[in-house]
Amino acid sequence: MRHLSERALDAATAAGASYADCRVINRTVQRLSVKNGVVASVELYEDEGIGIRVIAGGSWGFAGVDELRAGSIEETARHAVDIAKASSRVNRTPVRLAPAPPLIGEYTTPFIRDPFAVSLDDKVGLLLRTDEAMSHLPQIRVRECSLEFVREQRHFASTEGALLDQTIIESGGGLDATATSDDEVQTRSFPNSFGRHQVCAGWEAVEAFDLPGNAERVAEEAVALLTAAQCPAGTMTVILDATQAALQVHESCGHPTELDRVLGHEAAYAGTSFLTPDLLGSFRYGSEHVTMTADSTRAPGLGTFGWDDEGVAAQRTVLVDQGIFTGYLSSRETAAAIGQVSNGAMRADGWSRLPIIRMTNINLEPGTSSLEEMIATTEHGVYLETNRSWSIDDRRLNFQFGTQNGWEIIDGKRTRLVRNPIYSGQTPEFWGSCDAVAGPAEWVMYGVVNCGKGQPPQSMHVGHGAAPCRFRNVRVEPSR
Amino acid sequence: MSGNEELLGIGDGALASLERGEAEVVITDSRSELTRFAGNEIHQSVGERFRHIRVRLIDGGRTGVGEVRGHGDGAVALAFAAAEASRRVTAESDVSPLPGPPASGGDETVAYSAATDAATPQDRAELVSIITEAAGTHHLQAYGALSTTTTTTAVVNSAGVRRSATSTQASLVAVVRGHDGAGYASRHSADIDALDVPGLAAEVVDTCERDQGATPIGPGEYEVVLSPYAVTDLLEHLGWVGFSALAVQEHRSFMHLGQKLMSEKITICDDATTNGIFPFPFDDEGVSTQRVTMIDRGVCAAVVYDTPTAVHDGVVSTGHSLPQPNTWGPLPRHVAMEAGDTPWQEMVGSVSRGLYITRFWYVRDVHPLRTVITGMTREGTFLIENGSITRPVKDLRFTQSIVEALADVIQVSSERRLELGEGESGVLSPWLRIGRFSFTS
Fold first, then answer.
1. Which pLDDT tens digit goes with each residue over B214-236?
2. pTM attached to this predicted model
3. SS3 helix, strand, coil % of chain B, rounded to 5?
4. Would you call A45 an interface residue with chain B, using a CB distance cutoff of 8 Å?
5. Nearest residue, CB atoms, B86 vs list A43, A64, A68
6. Cβ atoms of residues B249 and B312 within 8 Å
7. In chain B, whose CA is at the least distance from the CA of A120?
């Protein structure tokens, strides 16, 4: 790939770029799904192309093309420079980048068994066994299970001398069981909702999920929800399972610490942030039990890599330290705006999209409690499992989440199953009410595969390590 | 950018090499460019160009799919090889048949503009500067994006389908922010020259200036006037959760045909055949897209079909397929609500106390069967008192059943606007005056 990147950088420089970088990407995806006993799809996807980013006349330009021929690459590089020059006619402030050493190296996702070396027959067989295990309950109207495997080879080069090659491997899978009655529809999912759970690892990760072994239980839970009591309403204690805690971290810490949002780059679309720079180092974001990190070195998260998409090395940044807001996710351009250097959060959705600030692995660090202890010391509340709906305002303050099910807790005991729970609050008050986080034994790295941001839209795979955690005085109610 | 005939030729060549079974080849050439601005400057401007090839093979009761982007002249062969590898491992089952060619020529209206196709980065920068200068003149900051896209799609299959079309889309969205408030406006068209950029600039600056100094207002049920930006979210979510034949077949749709669920003022159709909503003549199976009225004067009238759901119900596909096979089912992507007879500017005058909502944000399904959604208001929420907008109010969270809201519609505006939903499908929306809308925090 190096000969291709040299062509791109030389052409951009010759056209007038003061800086250029490029990413040559080859991506292979396998997606398999079974629905109601039938192999619904086996899709094999191959994608390759080059994305070229330049600064010319003090402005950014970016162009991507799927033709990896010298002529096309050079034409695309010149087009990126043309785009930058067009922007420079409107702009008054030239782009300024924080310094970053030009690095040279190679990185490959650690894995035990290459998922692409496992036969498609074995993968289909696993899904059919999973489906069959859900098939014995007549109330289950829709049974779905799926697998996804990704291999992405990334070559990055810049006019500053960076030369980086990475191979990222992802493996994921999941199941959904949907039960229906005359007046109700309820879905339960495993290991996570919205299709699947995914990590940067090999086939061993999917085997560890044990989809067939969990399928019947999950289907039974969906049926039980049809006749479960509605979730109680009121202000009460809430305990989140690790999957819901992961999404809470995603929406209320991951997004508001993206420095491009803070600087207004996403104001017209994804929004801004309540975590303004004047709050850095002093604002109480949560209780002393709350420490959150951005850690792209932590396997097997979907935000684990060697270098980000502008060549900055993977690293760990503390975003919230025992409740105090301490850090942002940044890029070379945004870090320079607040007098810092990048902490490596620039990521792109493939070769055709411009790198923007994205989450890596945003983690709620483990505490010292346990789910059992949290329930035992709760007088009245609900234990909520697996996300069903999520919504938060454009500054990431006012949120409302729904989960697939809940368990009412009375006098330290998990009692009855309840359906349609939703809870809501304001971000700092909510995390400020956190009085317990489970320890490392219950801490799991989950994957979110549908994080949307940017124009044109980009979908990113990000990781979230989390454990069950408890919050006091939360507004809870059933969805109507 | 390749022409229609070139893509059809590639598809024909691919089918000619088919030795047994059936095949469908979908080829898409796309060129899209987008200029993004923030703080009255262009901070991101991008372009991308690619060809995507999707092959569906059916043989021996098994279906396989291969997709390729890039890989030059070897792309078709690579896609066929992937599809065959896929096909070999799928189980024998009742596969959905490939559709045949349309009985007649049908409506071939396509949203296309040579001006959009030829737009340059300089053209986009000049249009953007109209907005940034308008904002700057009022000491405000503009943010947004202007995109232009040209797409050529060809669908050929071994049952005789041979369709192709080239479409364009130009889309401009803008947020203007002041010290303590913001406004929003957007315009969308096949033709970049038809975008009313000065009109958008005036609208968004006006909304922003009126939004300054918003004060809180308590949650509760309010009478509302929803702008087309907000109505678009309601219509798009109805399409996702209920207008699909598969959702009905799986008992997860609110649609009960023949039942009156909404106000008789409400008629909702999907219409890809007119110039109003980015017309396009066929779906992802190459089937001609029919006009379907889903809600007729408040009554559930019909749902949209693809080939698999049509076979299941013994009817004909309405041409609303996504790429096959899939587990999501058919989808309306050109939704329109029929206009009413009230000029929108008269709606506020009839409200004694209520809210004018410019825009919703982060709308998500809470209970799909009951069409309950939640979301926030954003960039222009105003209190209406005694027939006049009196002051801006802080953003509110709503949690509301769409069907119940549309059952309580008092007025539908005589004007409509073409919008893009969050899923980027075209929606033709009026203003709506609704009796009660539930705000929860």
1. 999 999 999 999 999 999 999 99
2. 0.95
3. 25, 40, 35
4. yes
5. A43
6. yes
7. B89
